[in-house]
Amino acid sequence: MKALALCLSLLLVMTACKQKPSQTSKEFLDKANKELKKEGHMASIASWIQANFITDDTTRLSSEYNARYSEMATAYAVDSKNYVGKTDDEKRMLHLMLGVLSVPSPKDKNKNQELSLLKSELESAYGSGKYCKDKDNCKGLEELEDIIKDSKNPDELLDAWNGWRTVAAPLKEKYQRTVELGNEGARELGFKDMADLWRSNYDMPPAEFEKELDRIWSEVKPFYEQLHCFVRGKLNEKYGDSVVSKTGPIPAHLLGNMWAQSWDNLVDLVGVDPSQSVDITKLLKAANYDSKKMVKTAENFFVSLGMPKLPETFYERSLFDKPRDREVVCHASAWHVDMEEDVRIKMCIKIDEDSFRTIHHELGHIYYYLAYKSLPPLYQASANDGFHEALGDTIELSITGKYLNDINLLQSGSVQQDEINTLLRMALGKVAFLPFGLMIDKWRWQVFDGRVQPAQYNQAWWDLRTQYQGVKAPNERPADAFDPGAKYHIPAYTPYSRYFLAHILQFQFHRALCKTAGHTGPLHECSIFNNKPAGEKLFAMMKMGASKPWPQALAAVTGSEQMDASALREYFAPLEKWLVEKNQGQKCGW
Ligand code: X8Z
Ligand code: ZN
Description:
Helices cover 59% and strands 4% of the residues. By secondary structure, the chain is mostly helical. The radius of gyration is 24 Å and the shape is globular.
Protein backbone atom coordinates (compact mmCIF):
# COMPACT_ATOMS: atom_id res chain seq x y z
CA MET A 1 0.00 0.00 0.00
CA LYS A 2 2.81 2.34 0.92
CA ALA A 3 4.65 1.53 -2.28
CA LEU A 4 1.59 2.25 -4.30
CA ALA A 5 1.23 5.62 -2.64
CA LEU A 6 4.80 6.47 -3.49
CA CYS A 7 4.21 5.58 -7.10
CA LEU A 8 1.07 7.63 -7.16
CA SER A 9 2.71 10.71 -5.76
CA LEU A 10 5.61 10.31 -8.19
CA LEU A 11 3.12 10.10 -10.99
CA LEU A 12 1.51 13.29 -9.79
CA VAL A 13 4.82 15.10 -9.72
CA MET A 14 5.58 13.89 -13.23
CA THR A 15 2.18 14.96 -14.47
CA ALA A 16 2.67 18.33 -12.86
CA CYS A 17 6.02 18.66 -14.65
CA LYS A 18 4.39 17.96 -17.96
CA GLN A 19 1.99 20.77 -17.43
CA LYS A 20 4.51 23.33 -16.27
CA PRO A 21 7.95 23.15 -17.77
CA SER A 22 10.15 26.05 -16.74
CA GLN A 23 10.66 27.20 -20.34
CA THR A 24 8.71 27.23 -23.59
CA SER A 25 9.17 24.37 -26.03
CA LYS A 26 10.95 26.78 -28.37
CA GLU A 27 13.43 27.78 -25.69
CA PHE A 28 13.95 24.13 -24.82
CA LEU A 29 14.58 23.15 -28.44
CA ASP A 30 16.89 26.08 -29.13
CA LYS A 31 19.00 25.16 -26.13
CA ALA A 32 19.04 21.47 -27.03
CA ASN A 33 20.03 22.19 -30.65
CA LYS A 34 22.87 24.41 -29.51
CA GLU A 35 24.26 22.20 -26.78
CA LEU A 36 23.94 18.93 -28.65
CA LYS A 37 25.84 20.47 -31.54
CA LYS A 38 28.65 21.60 -29.26
CA GLU A 39 28.97 18.36 -27.30
CA GLY A 40 28.48 16.31 -30.47
CA HIS A 41 31.42 18.12 -32.04
CA MET A 42 33.71 17.01 -29.21
CA ALA A 43 32.44 13.43 -29.34
CA SER A 44 32.96 13.41 -33.08
CA ILE A 45 36.55 14.63 -32.83
CA ALA A 46 37.32 12.00 -30.22
CA SER A 47 35.71 9.24 -32.31
CA TRP A 48 37.63 10.42 -35.35
CA ILE A 49 40.93 10.13 -33.54
CA GLN A 50 40.02 6.71 -32.21
CA ALA A 51 39.01 5.38 -35.63
CA ASN A 52 42.17 6.81 -37.23
CA PHE A 53 44.56 5.57 -34.57
CA ILE A 54 43.18 2.64 -32.61
CA THR A 55 44.89 2.20 -29.25
CA ASP A 56 43.66 1.58 -25.71
CA ASP A 57 44.17 5.26 -24.98
CA THR A 58 42.15 6.58 -27.90
CA THR A 59 39.44 4.02 -27.15
CA ARG A 60 39.15 5.37 -23.61
CA LEU A 61 39.23 8.99 -24.69
CA SER A 62 36.56 8.47 -27.27
CA SER A 63 34.44 6.56 -24.79
CA GLU A 64 34.73 9.43 -22.32
CA TYR A 65 33.55 12.09 -24.78
CA ASN A 66 30.83 9.89 -26.16
CA ALA A 67 29.60 9.19 -22.64
CA ARG A 68 29.26 12.93 -22.06
CA TYR A 69 27.36 13.30 -25.30
CA SER A 70 25.08 10.34 -24.60
CA GLU A 71 24.35 11.62 -21.14
CA MET A 72 23.31 14.96 -22.55
CA ALA A 73 21.35 13.53 -25.47
CA THR A 74 19.52 11.10 -23.20
CA ALA A 75 18.69 13.82 -20.69
CA TYR A 76 17.26 15.99 -23.46
CA ALA A 77 15.31 13.08 -24.88
CA VAL A 78 13.78 12.28 -21.49
CA ASP A 79 13.02 15.95 -20.90
CA SER A 80 11.45 16.36 -24.35
CA LYS A 81 8.54 14.30 -23.13
CA ASN A 82 7.53 17.21 -20.89
CA TYR A 83 6.80 19.34 -23.93
CA VAL A 84 4.08 19.16 -26.52
CA GLY A 85 5.32 21.68 -29.06
CA LYS A 86 3.30 24.56 -30.48
CA THR A 87 4.07 24.28 -34.17
CA ASP A 88 4.56 21.31 -36.51
CA ASP A 89 8.29 22.03 -36.51
CA GLU A 90 8.46 21.95 -32.74
CA LYS A 91 6.47 18.73 -32.60
CA ARG A 92 8.72 17.13 -35.20
CA MET A 93 11.91 18.16 -33.45
CA LEU A 94 10.63 16.87 -30.13
CA HIS A 95 10.00 13.50 -31.75
CA LEU A 96 13.37 13.51 -33.53
CA MET A 97 15.09 14.14 -30.23
CA LEU A 98 14.05 10.68 -29.04
CA GLY A 99 15.97 9.08 -31.88
CA VAL A 100 19.24 11.05 -31.65
CA LEU A 101 21.05 8.03 -30.19
CA SER A 102 20.72 4.63 -31.82
CA VAL A 103 21.80 3.13 -28.49
CA PRO A 104 20.26 5.30 -25.76
CA SER A 105 22.01 5.18 -22.41
CA PRO A 106 20.38 4.56 -19.09
CA LYS A 107 20.16 7.61 -16.82
CA ASP A 108 22.36 5.88 -14.25
CA LYS A 109 25.81 7.48 -14.65
CA ASN A 110 27.77 4.27 -14.12
CA LYS A 111 25.72 2.41 -16.66
CA ASN A 112 26.13 5.23 -19.14
CA GLN A 113 29.91 5.06 -18.72
CA GLU A 114 29.88 1.29 -18.98
CA LEU A 115 27.85 1.37 -22.19
CA SER A 116 30.03 4.01 -23.77
CA LEU A 117 33.22 2.11 -23.00
CA LEU A 118 31.78 -1.15 -24.31
CA LYS A 119 30.77 0.54 -27.55
CA SER A 120 34.21 2.06 -28.05
CA GLU A 121 35.84 -1.27 -27.28
CA LEU A 122 33.66 -3.09 -29.78
CA GLU A 123 34.54 -0.56 -32.48
CA SER A 124 38.27 -0.84 -31.75
CA ALA A 125 38.23 -4.62 -31.53
CA TYR A 126 36.55 -4.88 -34.91
CA GLY A 127 38.82 -2.30 -36.54
CA SER A 128 42.04 -3.85 -35.31
CA GLY A 129 40.93 -7.50 -35.46
CA LYS A 130 43.44 -10.01 -36.82
CA TYR A 131 43.32 -13.67 -37.69
CA CYS A 132 46.62 -15.31 -36.82
CA LYS A 133 47.30 -18.77 -38.16
CA ASP A 134 50.47 -18.64 -36.10
CA LYS A 135 52.18 -15.78 -34.40
CA ASP A 136 54.09 -14.61 -37.48
CA ASN A 137 51.21 -14.95 -39.83
CA CYS A 138 48.43 -12.53 -38.96
CA LYS A 139 45.93 -11.07 -41.39
CA GLY A 140 43.50 -8.19 -40.97
CA LEU A 141 40.11 -7.84 -42.63
CA GLU A 142 41.44 -6.16 -45.76
CA GLU A 143 43.79 -9.02 -46.57
CA LEU A 144 41.20 -11.64 -45.77
CA GLU A 145 38.69 -9.87 -47.99
CA ASP A 146 41.19 -9.97 -50.84
CA ILE A 147 41.39 -13.74 -50.52
CA ILE A 148 37.62 -14.10 -50.55
CA LYS A 149 37.50 -11.83 -53.59
CA ASP A 150 40.23 -13.46 -55.67
CA SER A 151 40.70 -17.08 -54.66
CA LYS A 152 38.82 -19.89 -56.34
CA ASN A 153 40.24 -22.52 -54.02
CA PRO A 154 37.44 -23.64 -51.65
CA ASP A 155 39.84 -24.56 -48.84
CA GLU A 156 41.63 -21.25 -48.98
CA LEU A 157 38.30 -19.45 -49.10
CA LEU A 158 37.03 -21.37 -46.13
CA ASP A 159 40.12 -20.58 -44.10
CA ALA A 160 39.82 -16.83 -44.73
CA TRP A 161 36.09 -16.96 -44.04
CA ASN A 162 36.50 -18.83 -40.76
CA GLY A 163 39.54 -16.76 -39.86
CA TRP A 164 37.65 -13.46 -39.85
CA ARG A 165 34.94 -15.02 -37.71
CA THR A 166 37.44 -15.91 -35.00
CA VAL A 167 37.76 -12.15 -34.48
CA ALA A 168 34.03 -11.86 -33.80
CA ALA A 169 33.58 -14.67 -31.28
CA PRO A 170 35.12 -12.77 -28.34
CA LEU A 171 32.81 -9.79 -28.96
CA LYS A 172 29.69 -11.66 -27.97
CA GLU A 173 29.78 -10.98 -24.26
CA LYS A 174 30.30 -7.26 -24.68
CA TYR A 175 27.60 -7.13 -27.35
CA GLN A 176 25.14 -8.93 -25.13
CA ARG A 177 25.71 -6.40 -22.35
CA THR A 178 25.24 -3.44 -24.72
CA VAL A 179 21.88 -4.91 -25.69
CA GLU A 180 20.82 -5.02 -22.03
CA LEU A 181 21.98 -1.47 -21.36
CA GLY A 182 20.63 -0.02 -24.60
CA ASN A 183 17.25 -1.61 -23.95
CA GLU A 184 17.22 -0.10 -20.47
CA GLY A 185 17.91 3.30 -22.03
CA ALA A 186 15.16 2.79 -24.62
CA ARG A 187 12.64 1.85 -21.94
CA GLU A 188 13.47 4.98 -19.98
CA LEU A 189 12.52 6.94 -23.09
CA GLY A 190 9.17 5.18 -23.22
CA PHE A 191 9.96 2.59 -25.91
CA LYS A 192 9.43 -1.12 -25.45
CA ASP A 193 13.06 -1.78 -26.39
CA MET A 194 15.68 -0.66 -28.93
CA ALA A 195 13.86 -2.42 -31.76
CA ASP A 196 10.79 -0.32 -31.06
CA LEU A 197 12.98 2.79 -30.99
CA TRP A 198 14.74 1.96 -34.28
CA ARG A 199 11.49 1.32 -36.08
CA SER A 200 9.98 4.57 -34.84
CA ASN A 201 12.06 6.81 -37.11
CA TYR A 202 10.05 6.47 -40.30
CA ASP A 203 7.06 8.76 -39.98
CA MET A 204 4.74 5.80 -39.42
CA PRO A 205 3.90 3.48 -36.53
CA PRO A 206 6.80 1.07 -35.83
CA ALA A 207 4.75 -2.05 -36.62
CA GLU A 208 3.81 -0.63 -40.01
CA PHE A 209 7.41 0.00 -40.89
CA GLU A 210 8.18 -3.68 -40.64
CA LYS A 211 5.23 -4.48 -42.89
CA GLU A 212 6.41 -1.83 -45.32
CA LEU A 213 9.81 -3.52 -45.62
CA ASP A 214 8.17 -6.89 -46.17
CA ARG A 215 5.93 -5.44 -48.83
CA ILE A 216 8.87 -3.98 -50.74
CA TRP A 217 10.81 -7.22 -50.37
CA SER A 218 7.92 -9.16 -51.86
CA GLU A 219 8.21 -6.96 -54.96
CA VAL A 220 11.81 -7.99 -55.60
CA LYS A 221 11.98 -11.50 -54.17
CA PRO A 222 11.02 -13.33 -57.38
CA PHE A 223 13.79 -11.52 -59.26
CA TYR A 224 16.32 -12.26 -56.52
CA GLU A 225 15.39 -15.95 -56.69
CA GLN A 226 16.17 -16.00 -60.39
CA LEU A 227 19.55 -14.38 -59.84
CA HIS A 228 20.29 -16.77 -56.98
CA CYS A 229 19.33 -19.74 -59.14
CA PHE A 230 21.58 -18.65 -61.99
CA VAL A 231 24.58 -17.92 -59.78
CA ARG A 232 24.16 -21.18 -57.87
CA GLY A 233 24.13 -23.06 -61.16
CA LYS A 234 27.41 -21.41 -62.18
CA LEU A 235 28.99 -22.13 -58.79
CA ASN A 236 27.87 -25.74 -59.07
CA GLU A 237 29.51 -25.99 -62.52
CA LYS A 238 32.71 -24.54 -61.11
CA TYR A 239 33.01 -26.35 -57.77
CA GLY A 240 30.86 -29.47 -58.22
CA ASP A 241 28.09 -31.08 -56.18
CA SER A 242 30.32 -31.81 -53.21
CA VAL A 243 30.83 -28.06 -52.61
CA VAL A 244 27.61 -26.47 -53.92
CA SER A 245 24.39 -28.40 -54.37
CA LYS A 246 22.14 -27.61 -57.33
CA THR A 247 19.14 -27.13 -55.09
CA GLY A 248 20.00 -25.97 -51.56
CA PRO A 249 21.32 -22.73 -50.10
CA ILE A 250 24.74 -21.54 -51.29
CA PRO A 251 27.69 -21.89 -48.88
CA ALA A 252 28.59 -18.36 -47.83
CA HIS A 253 32.35 -18.49 -48.53
CA LEU A 254 31.98 -18.82 -52.32
CA LEU A 255 30.26 -15.58 -53.24
CA GLY A 256 33.29 -13.32 -53.53
CA ASN A 257 32.44 -11.21 -50.51
CA MET A 258 33.24 -11.77 -46.83
CA TRP A 259 29.56 -11.54 -45.89
CA ALA A 260 28.09 -12.79 -49.19
CA GLN A 261 26.27 -9.45 -49.23
CA SER A 262 26.98 -8.56 -52.83
CA TRP A 263 28.41 -10.77 -55.47
CA ASP A 264 30.05 -8.41 -57.92
CA ASN A 265 33.37 -10.19 -57.60
CA LEU A 266 31.81 -13.19 -59.33
CA VAL A 267 31.52 -11.43 -62.69
CA ASP A 268 34.09 -13.69 -64.32
CA LEU A 269 32.77 -16.84 -62.76
CA VAL A 270 29.21 -16.26 -63.94
CA GLY A 271 30.47 -15.57 -67.43
CA VAL A 272 30.07 -11.82 -67.87
CA ASP A 273 31.86 -11.10 -71.13
CA PRO A 274 34.72 -8.64 -70.48
CA SER A 275 34.63 -7.44 -74.08
CA GLN A 276 30.94 -6.55 -73.78
CA SER A 277 30.79 -4.72 -70.47
CA VAL A 278 32.98 -2.11 -68.84
CA ASP A 279 35.60 -3.27 -66.35
CA ILE A 280 36.20 -0.12 -64.30
CA THR A 281 39.06 -1.65 -62.30
CA LYS A 282 40.99 -2.21 -65.49
CA LEU A 283 40.34 1.35 -66.67
CA LEU A 284 41.41 2.94 -63.37
CA LYS A 285 44.62 0.96 -63.31
CA ALA A 286 45.41 1.61 -66.96
CA ALA A 287 44.93 5.36 -66.43
CA ASN A 288 47.17 5.29 -63.33
CA TYR A 289 44.55 6.64 -60.99
CA ASP A 290 45.52 7.08 -57.35
CA SER A 291 43.15 7.43 -54.40
CA LYS A 292 43.00 11.23 -54.58
CA LYS A 293 42.27 11.22 -58.28
CA MET A 294 39.41 8.80 -57.68
CA VAL A 295 37.95 11.14 -55.07
CA LYS A 296 38.42 14.18 -57.33
CA THR A 297 36.65 12.37 -60.13
CA ALA A 298 33.67 11.64 -57.89
CA GLU A 299 33.64 15.24 -56.63
CA ASN A 300 33.64 16.40 -60.22
CA PHE A 301 30.40 14.50 -60.83
CA PHE A 302 28.61 16.34 -58.03
CA VAL A 303 30.06 19.66 -59.22
CA SER A 304 28.81 18.90 -62.75
CA LEU A 305 25.30 18.83 -61.27
CA GLY A 306 25.70 22.35 -59.94
CA MET A 307 26.75 21.43 -56.40
CA PRO A 308 29.65 23.27 -54.73
CA LYS A 309 33.29 22.20 -54.69
CA LEU A 310 34.35 20.47 -51.50
CA PRO A 311 36.05 22.65 -48.88
CA GLU A 312 39.87 22.44 -48.86
CA THR A 313 39.72 21.05 -45.32
CA PHE A 314 37.99 17.97 -46.74
CA TYR A 315 41.20 17.05 -48.55
CA GLU A 316 43.42 18.10 -45.66
CA ARG A 317 41.59 16.08 -43.02
CA SER A 318 40.23 12.99 -44.77
CA LEU A 319 41.92 9.61 -44.78
CA PHE A 320 42.13 8.00 -48.23
CA ASP A 321 44.92 5.45 -47.86
CA LYS A 322 45.41 2.69 -45.34
CA PRO A 323 48.31 3.75 -43.11
CA ARG A 324 51.17 1.27 -42.84
CA ASP A 325 52.10 1.98 -39.26
CA ARG A 326 48.94 2.15 -37.21
CA GLU A 327 45.54 0.50 -36.81
CA VAL A 328 42.51 2.24 -38.33
CA VAL A 329 38.89 1.32 -38.86
CA CYS A 330 39.00 0.70 -42.60
CA HIS A 331 35.24 0.39 -43.06
CA ALA A 332 34.42 3.43 -45.21
CA SER A 333 32.61 6.28 -43.51
CA ALA A 334 31.68 9.94 -44.02
CA TRP A 335 31.81 12.39 -41.15
CA HIS A 336 30.08 15.67 -40.37
CA VAL A 337 32.41 16.63 -37.59
CA ASP A 338 31.09 20.05 -36.58
CA MET A 339 27.69 20.04 -38.29
CA GLU A 340 29.02 22.89 -40.42
CA GLU A 341 31.76 22.73 -43.06
CA ASP A 342 34.14 20.27 -41.41
CA VAL A 343 33.36 17.18 -43.51
CA ARG A 344 35.67 14.21 -44.03
CA ILE A 345 35.74 10.68 -45.31
CA LYS A 346 37.77 7.84 -43.91
CA MET A 347 38.47 4.99 -46.26
CA CYS A 348 41.20 2.56 -47.21
CA ILE A 349 40.85 3.16 -50.93
CA LYS A 350 41.97 0.49 -53.36
CA ILE A 351 42.36 1.21 -57.03
CA ASP A 352 39.35 -0.80 -58.11
CA GLU A 353 35.71 -0.56 -59.10
CA ASP A 354 34.40 -1.36 -55.66
CA SER A 355 36.27 1.55 -54.06
CA PHE A 356 35.36 3.84 -56.96
CA ARG A 357 31.68 3.13 -56.36
CA THR A 358 32.07 3.46 -52.59
CA ILE A 359 33.71 6.88 -52.96
CA HIS A 360 30.59 8.09 -54.77
CA HIS A 361 28.53 6.59 -51.96
CA GLU A 362 30.57 8.44 -49.33
CA LEU A 363 30.48 11.74 -51.20
CA GLY A 364 26.71 11.37 -51.30
CA HIS A 365 26.80 11.60 -47.50
CA ILE A 366 29.22 14.53 -47.63
CA TYR A 367 27.09 16.53 -50.07
CA TYR A 368 23.99 15.81 -47.99
CA TYR A 369 25.82 17.20 -44.91
CA LEU A 370 26.78 20.33 -46.80
CA ALA A 371 23.31 20.79 -48.26
CA TYR A 372 21.60 20.90 -44.86
CA LYS A 373 24.35 22.47 -42.78
CA SER A 374 22.31 25.63 -42.10
CA LEU A 375 19.34 23.78 -40.61
CA PRO A 376 18.91 23.35 -36.85
CA PRO A 377 20.98 20.32 -35.78
CA LEU A 378 17.91 18.18 -35.08
CA TYR A 379 16.99 18.55 -38.75
CA GLN A 380 20.51 17.75 -39.92
CA ALA A 381 19.73 14.29 -41.21
CA SER A 382 18.05 12.89 -44.29
CA ALA A 383 14.30 12.49 -44.73
CA ASN A 384 14.68 8.93 -43.51
CA ASP A 385 18.03 7.21 -43.13
CA GLY A 386 17.59 5.32 -46.41
CA PHE A 387 17.80 8.63 -48.27
CA HIS A 388 21.27 9.34 -46.93
CA GLU A 389 22.49 5.94 -48.06
CA ALA A 390 20.78 6.24 -51.43
CA LEU A 391 22.18 9.60 -52.45
CA GLY A 392 25.68 8.67 -53.55
CA ASP A 393 24.43 5.39 -55.00
CA THR A 394 22.04 7.36 -57.18
CA ILE A 395 24.99 9.24 -58.64
CA GLU A 396 26.87 5.96 -58.97
CA LEU A 397 24.06 4.59 -61.18
CA SER A 398 25.07 7.31 -63.64
CA ILE A 399 28.54 5.81 -64.10
CA THR A 400 27.73 4.52 -67.56
CA GLY A 401 29.98 3.74 -70.52
CA LYS A 402 29.04 7.06 -72.06
CA TYR A 403 30.00 8.91 -68.86
CA LEU A 404 33.33 7.10 -68.70
CA ASN A 405 33.90 8.21 -72.30
CA ASP A 406 33.07 11.78 -71.34
CA ILE A 407 35.70 11.83 -68.61
CA ASN A 408 38.24 10.11 -70.86
CA LEU A 409 38.55 7.00 -68.77
CA LEU A 410 37.14 4.81 -71.52
CA GLN A 411 38.12 5.26 -75.15
CA SER A 412 34.97 5.49 -77.20
CA GLY A 413 34.35 2.43 -79.34
CA SER A 414 36.73 0.23 -77.32
CA VAL A 415 33.95 -1.80 -75.69
CA GLN A 416 30.73 -2.87 -77.36
CA GLN A 417 28.49 -2.78 -74.32
CA ASP A 418 25.85 -5.44 -74.37
CA GLU A 419 22.71 -5.03 -72.29
CA ILE A 420 22.69 -8.39 -70.50
CA ASN A 421 26.39 -8.34 -69.61
CA THR A 422 26.07 -4.82 -68.26
CA LEU A 423 22.93 -5.52 -66.26
CA LEU A 424 24.25 -8.77 -64.85
CA ARG A 425 27.31 -6.94 -63.56
CA MET A 426 25.05 -4.42 -61.81
CA ALA A 427 22.63 -7.02 -60.46
CA LEU A 428 25.43 -8.99 -58.81
CA GLY A 429 26.12 -5.86 -56.78
CA LYS A 430 22.72 -4.30 -56.26
CA VAL A 431 20.15 -7.10 -56.39
CA ALA A 432 22.17 -9.73 -54.56
CA PHE A 433 22.39 -7.23 -51.69
CA LEU A 434 18.64 -6.87 -51.06
CA PRO A 435 17.89 -9.81 -48.72
CA PHE A 436 21.11 -9.18 -46.82
CA GLY A 437 20.06 -5.55 -46.36
CA LEU A 438 16.77 -6.79 -44.96
CA MET A 439 17.82 -9.62 -42.66
CA ILE A 440 20.40 -7.79 -40.55
CA ASP A 441 17.85 -5.71 -38.68
CA LYS A 442 15.35 -8.58 -38.66
CA TRP A 443 17.99 -10.34 -36.56
CA ARG A 444 18.62 -7.32 -34.37
CA TRP A 445 14.95 -6.66 -33.73
CA GLN A 446 14.57 -10.22 -32.46
CA VAL A 447 17.66 -9.81 -30.30
CA PHE A 448 16.56 -6.45 -28.90
CA ASP A 449 13.00 -7.50 -28.14
CA GLY A 450 14.15 -10.69 -26.45
CA ARG A 451 12.70 -13.22 -28.91
CA VAL A 452 16.28 -14.35 -29.46
CA GLN A 453 18.39 -14.90 -26.37
CA PRO A 454 22.21 -14.90 -26.38
CA ALA A 455 22.38 -18.68 -26.57
CA GLN A 456 20.51 -18.54 -29.88
CA TYR A 457 22.26 -15.49 -31.39
CA ASN A 458 24.19 -17.49 -33.94
CA GLN A 459 21.51 -20.01 -34.86
CA ALA A 460 18.95 -17.22 -35.37
CA TRP A 461 21.45 -15.39 -37.58
CA TRP A 462 21.93 -18.37 -39.86
CA ASP A 463 18.22 -19.14 -39.92
CA LEU A 464 17.59 -15.66 -41.32
CA ARG A 465 20.55 -15.83 -43.71
CA THR A 466 19.09 -19.00 -45.15
CA GLN A 467 15.49 -17.85 -45.15
CA TYR A 468 16.14 -14.55 -46.92
CA GLN A 469 19.37 -14.96 -48.85
CA GLY A 470 19.42 -18.67 -49.57
CA VAL A 471 22.92 -18.77 -48.13
CA LYS A 472 24.24 -21.13 -45.47
CA ALA A 473 27.25 -21.44 -43.19
CA PRO A 474 29.93 -23.44 -45.00
CA ASN A 475 30.62 -25.58 -41.96
CA GLU A 476 29.18 -26.37 -38.59
CA ARG A 477 29.66 -23.31 -36.42
CA PRO A 478 31.65 -23.60 -33.20
CA ALA A 479 29.66 -23.36 -29.96
CA ASP A 480 31.14 -19.94 -29.15
CA ALA A 481 30.66 -18.48 -32.65
CA PHE A 482 29.21 -14.98 -32.89
CA ASP A 483 29.06 -14.59 -36.67
CA PRO A 484 26.88 -11.46 -36.65
CA GLY A 485 29.79 -9.69 -34.93
CA ALA A 486 31.93 -10.24 -38.02
CA LYS A 487 29.88 -7.62 -39.86
CA TYR A 488 30.95 -4.05 -39.05
CA HIS A 489 27.47 -2.63 -38.44
CA ILE A 490 26.71 -5.06 -35.61
CA PRO A 491 29.52 -4.05 -33.21
CA ALA A 492 29.27 -0.46 -34.50
CA TYR A 493 25.51 -0.36 -33.89
CA THR A 494 24.71 1.16 -37.28
CA PRO A 495 21.09 0.43 -38.18
CA TYR A 496 20.93 -1.50 -41.45
CA SER A 497 17.39 -1.30 -42.88
CA ARG A 498 18.60 2.00 -44.30
CA TYR A 499 20.70 0.13 -46.88
CA PHE A 500 17.79 -2.03 -47.95
CA LEU A 501 15.72 1.11 -48.47
CA ALA A 502 18.60 2.81 -50.24
CA HIS A 503 18.84 -0.01 -52.75
CA ILE A 504 15.19 0.58 -53.62
CA LEU A 505 15.19 4.38 -53.42
CA GLN A 506 18.27 4.90 -55.60
CA PHE A 507 16.43 3.42 -58.58
CA GLN A 508 13.40 5.61 -57.89
CA PHE A 509 15.65 8.68 -57.77
CA HIS A 510 17.57 7.59 -60.85
CA ARG A 511 14.42 7.07 -62.91
CA ALA A 512 12.97 10.43 -61.87
CA LEU A 513 16.19 12.38 -62.44
CA CYS A 514 16.71 10.73 -65.83
CA LYS A 515 13.25 11.89 -66.77
CA THR A 516 14.13 15.43 -65.66
CA ALA A 517 17.28 15.17 -67.75
CA GLY A 518 15.17 14.25 -70.77
CA HIS A 519 16.59 10.74 -71.10
CA THR A 520 14.44 8.44 -73.18
CA GLY A 521 16.30 5.12 -73.68
CA PRO A 522 16.79 2.26 -71.22
CA LEU A 523 17.41 3.33 -67.63
CA HIS A 524 20.81 1.66 -67.37
CA GLU A 525 22.09 3.83 -70.20
CA CYS A 526 21.13 7.08 -68.51
CA SER A 527 23.70 9.33 -66.90
CA ILE A 528 22.74 12.62 -65.33
CA PHE A 529 26.36 13.85 -65.54
CA ASN A 530 26.46 17.59 -66.27
CA ASN A 531 22.71 17.92 -66.04
CA LYS A 532 21.92 20.99 -63.95
CA PRO A 533 18.11 20.61 -63.75
CA ALA A 534 18.51 17.07 -62.38
CA GLY A 535 21.16 18.31 -59.94
CA GLU A 536 18.94 21.17 -58.76
CA LYS A 537 16.06 18.84 -58.11
CA LEU A 538 18.22 16.50 -56.06
CA PHE A 539 19.96 19.28 -54.15
CA ALA A 540 16.63 20.91 -53.27
CA MET A 541 15.55 17.67 -51.62
CA MET A 542 18.86 17.33 -49.79
CA LYS A 543 18.50 20.85 -48.41
CA MET A 544 15.22 19.82 -46.75
CA GLY A 545 17.19 17.53 -44.44
CA ALA A 546 14.84 15.86 -41.99
CA SER A 547 12.55 18.87 -41.76
CA LYS A 548 9.61 17.18 -43.47
CA PRO A 549 8.17 13.65 -43.37
CA TRP A 550 10.00 11.49 -45.90
CA PRO A 551 7.05 11.01 -48.28
CA GLN A 552 7.22 14.74 -49.02
CA ALA A 553 10.94 14.61 -49.71
CA LEU A 554 10.46 11.59 -51.96
CA ALA A 555 7.69 13.34 -53.84
CA ALA A 556 9.92 16.40 -54.33
CA VAL A 557 12.13 14.27 -56.58
CA THR A 558 9.93 11.49 -57.89
CA GLY A 559 6.40 12.87 -57.67
CA SER A 560 5.41 9.81 -55.61
CA GLU A 561 5.04 9.43 -51.87
CA GLN A 562 5.58 5.66 -51.90
CA MET A 563 8.77 3.68 -51.75
CA ASP A 564 8.44 0.87 -54.26
CA ALA A 565 10.55 -1.42 -56.40
CA SER A 566 9.02 -0.61 -59.78
CA ALA A 567 12.02 1.47 -60.88
CA LEU A 568 14.44 -1.29 -59.90
CA ARG A 569 12.35 -3.85 -61.76
CA GLU A 570 12.19 -1.57 -64.79
CA TYR A 571 15.97 -1.01 -64.75
CA PHE A 572 16.65 -4.74 -64.74
CA ALA A 573 13.66 -5.94 -66.78
CA PRO A 574 15.66 -7.35 -69.73
CA LEU A 575 17.95 -9.24 -67.36
CA GLU A 576 15.07 -10.69 -65.38
CA LYS A 577 13.53 -12.04 -68.56
CA TRP A 578 16.87 -13.46 -69.66
CA LEU A 579 17.45 -15.13 -66.29
CA VAL A 580 14.04 -16.77 -66.32
CA GLU A 581 14.87 -18.26 -69.72
CA LYS A 582 18.34 -19.38 -68.65
CA ASN A 583 16.96 -21.00 -65.52
CA GLN A 584 14.41 -23.11 -67.45
CA GLY A 585 14.57 -26.68 -66.17
CA GLN A 586 16.39 -25.74 -62.97
CA LYS A 587 14.76 -26.21 -59.60
CA CYS A 588 15.06 -22.65 -58.28
CA GLY A 589 14.64 -21.70 -54.62
CA TRP A 590 16.28 -23.49 -51.69
O1 X8Z B 1 28.54 0.59 -44.79
C1 X8Z B 1 28.35 0.97 -45.93
C2 X8Z B 1 29.02 2.24 -46.42
C3 X8Z B 1 29.16 3.25 -45.35
S1 X8Z B 1 27.63 3.90 -44.83
C4 X8Z B 1 30.38 1.93 -46.96
N1 X8Z B 1 27.60 0.22 -46.78
C5 X8Z B 1 26.99 -1.04 -46.38
C6 X8Z B 1 28.03 -2.11 -46.10
O2 X8Z B 1 29.20 -1.94 -46.46
O3 X8Z B 1 27.66 -3.15 -45.55
C7 X8Z B 1 27.29 0.55 -48.16
C8 X8Z B 1 26.50 -0.60 -48.69
C9 X8Z B 1 26.10 -1.44 -47.52
ZN1 ZN C 1 26.73 5.08 -46.27
